[in-house]
Amino acid sequence: xxxxxxxxxxxxxxxxxGIRSKDSEGEIVLISKENCISYSKPQLYKILNQNDIKTIxxxxxxxxxxxxxxxLFGQVLKSIDFKNKLVLLxxxxxxxxxxxIATGAKANIPIIKGFEGEIYSFxxxxxxxxxxxxxxxxxxxVILGGGLIGVKLSxxxxxxxxxxxxxxxxxxxxxxxxxxxxxxxxxxxxxxxGVKLFLSTKVIGAKKExxxxxxxxxxxxxxxxxxxxxxxxxxxxxxxxxxxxxxNIGIKVDDHMRTNIKDVFAAGDVTEVYNKFEDxxxxxxxxxxxxxxxxxxxxxxxxxxxxxxTWYPMNSLKIFDxxxxxxxxxxxxxxxxxxxxxxxxxxxxxKLVIRNGKLIGAALLGDIDRAxxxxxxxxxxxxxxxxxxxxxxxxxxFYSIPRNLREVIVKSYTEGLNDSKL
Amino acid sequence: xxxxxxxDEDFCIGCRLCEVHCTVKHSKSGDILLAYKFENEKEPPRMxxxxxxxxxxxxxCMNCKDPLCIKACSMGAIKIEEGTVLIDNEKCVGCWxxxxxxxxxxxxRGEKKAFKCDHCFNEExxxxxxxxxxxxxxxxxx
Lengths: 422, 142
Fold this sequence. Notes:
The structure holds 2 protein chains of 2 kinds.
Chain A: E1 2-6, H1 10-20, E2 27-32, H2 61-66, E3 69-73, E4 77-81, E5 86-89, E6 92-95, E7 98-101, E8 105-107, E9 119-121, H3 125-135, E10 140-144, H4 148-159, E11 163-167, H5 180-192, E12 196-198, E13 203-209, E14 212-217, E15 221-224, E16 226-229, E17 233-235, E18 251-252, E19 264-266, E20 271-275, E21 280-282, H6 287-301, E22 314-319, E23 322-328, E24 337-343, E25 348-355, E26 358-365, H7 371-380, H8 388-392, H9 403-415
Parallel strand pairs in A: 1-2, 1-7, 2-3, 7-19, 9-16, 10-11, 10-16, 11-12, 18-20
Antiparallel strand pairs in A: 4-5, 5-6, 8-17, 13-14, 14-15, 20-21, 22-23, 23-26, 24-25, 25-26
Chain B: E1 3-7, H1 17-25, H2 32-39, E2 48-52, E3 55-59, H3 68-72, E4 78-81, E5 84-87, H4 97-101, E6 108-109, E7 114-115, H5 127-130, E8 137-141
Antiparallel strand pairs in B: 1-8, 2-3, 4-5, 6-7
């Protein structure tokens, strides 16, 4: 059996571990555009004030040897001949029995009217290093986009002493989470820490004059030395656009990470998986989801049986002093029940979204301890009608769950989650 | 081989001796007085006693068969070594993804790093099990 993996991020690493848990013999070939070992995307910010790439490595070099993976780094994928099972590189062809597409996502770079200079981005190591190099001579930075990358980058640049302006279209940062309170808390936090935050603001043009850039917004104008676009990412599907692969925004996969083509799997930021809470296919470009998707694909590629259990987004992050964990769906519909507590002074906020007696979303800001108990309740589809008040309490612990369920949970995790009847 | 500590809650009397012994075992000095008087803030117990109404017991790492913490870790800092799920303290950056997924709430937040029960992997039998006065804590290998 010959497995070919395209990509070297969390999904690709997950796939290697998934394959090797079932098949220690088969040949694994990993093809990557980037010329380095796997690194952690959520920690990419650290490269701005550290020089060693190893400080953000996701797996070390030994990992590839230990798992007997042949690596082809720095290779540009041209296309795939699905009919003849061939991966076409710039000057090579590689055959496969099972293929995993884990090409990730790339930065959305907007076109700014009147601006011909460089717009930086921050979605991979090359882009990060390029920005880092330019920062030596640049002090005033404009960041476009109030999503995850934009907000974290604002924080980091602020911390290394830059003058940061963050321009956001919507009325709050991280608006895609769908919870106005979270956006409000984070807006305040960001402003308090000294970032100039422009909300409900559109950039209408920019002009370069000498070394300075004048950014025109619909409300006012700001002068800066560099513009960084953090306006989200889009799945890297360009090599497959003219093929029979089923693509919407990302590659559509089922709950086994199979694409519409036999023996071709996809995982990570390049995919769309069916999100039951939203009742639609969603692209979820977050590391834990990517790794799990890859792991699931790997097991199924190696002939195992594994159903994806992380089809809803989950993330843990810290914005300045606000620690937060979000899981599942936070934007409630009309018939959903919402429980929440908010203590403004302590920056503590907890929210639960319950639909038909089941927990479908949770947000914890401030006190995040034992968040996994809630995550497990979401994943396991447990009825929470009798315990919902306890779940909202920050003193939640494993004994907050009724005994009969506790016993099932212990059994299912100690004996293997995916075989469980939960 | 997997090391496993099970708490039979019918026998747990809520004495919290497991926490005391865990704290001492993982302290620098190994001395109960020094550990509690001077080192406790830096070396809290790796496991915790939890309670809700009349149910109580020790929450230790369950050494899951397919550990979610390993898959969620943003740095690849969690590994299984000698049957025990262990966090590499050097690699951990405190992103708390592990806390986000642990179904038992067994992973704790340190100042900048996550920490958890290590099943006293360098001992034949975990210290909490050895010292549980009512034998509520049971040690298993499978």
